[in-house]
Write a structure and sequence with these properties.
Elements (H helix, E strand, L loop, with lengths): L1 E5 L3 H13 L3 E5 L2 H8 L11 E4 L8 H11 L4 E5 L4 H9 L4 E4 L4 H15 L19 E3 L2 E4 L4 E4 L2 E3 L3 H11 L6 E2 H9 L7 H15 L5 E4 L3 E4 L5
Parallel strand pairs: 1-2, 1-3, 3-4, 4-5
Antiparallel strand pairs: 6-7, 7-8, 8-9, 10-12, 11-12
Amino acid sequence: MRLLLVEDDDHVAGALSAVLARHGFEVRHVRTGAEALQELLPGEAGGTGYAVVLLDLGLPDRDGFEICGRIRRTSSTPVIMVTARADVRSRIHGLNLGADDYVVKPYDMGELLARIHAVSRRTGPEDESEGTGSAPQSGSGTLRLGGVTIEPATREVSVDGVRIQLTRKEFDLLALLAQRPGVVFRREQIISEVWRTSWEGTGRTLEVHIASLRSKLRRPALIETVRGVGYRMATTAA
């Protein structure tokens, strides 16, 4: 898995790159926002091929928030902000700009690895259906199931050509299920992937979001309940 590390501190980058390499990642390290954009944006020197971006916010040439916004306007590559800014407002701002996750330094390496794998599974090109499911039709990251169209890059969803408004968690939940139609996601797995917390005490929240999605999509049968296990996306829209 190729990973782009955007970090201006060579000592931090060197240590992190070494650990990531031992876990099977191919790491490309850049020090500035300009270099990151050159690697990621269409029409630039790079532009494709990274499964995840680890983005520091304190860059020497541009603020990391600006870089995240630029990336997200043109690319669906998952972005994890890795920064010492621990305040809630910074977290919210980063997520609103389209970051897929936000990790505060100092962090546990095991947790960072888990978060990298989580976002790459959720949005990466390696997402293919398993078991009885078949992969949704896609183009440039677009997911289609019947009359429902999901655009991961812009986080937009439309039903029969009409755009609908989803909350951030509703979109994350829908995108997770839609990338593997027919595959059953355990309740615990969904809570961990979408809410980044443990199952205990969060079950009712998941049920409410499923009900809301079914109502907004106007296709109650599209998201199936697997009793005692979890949920799956139907392979054909009802």
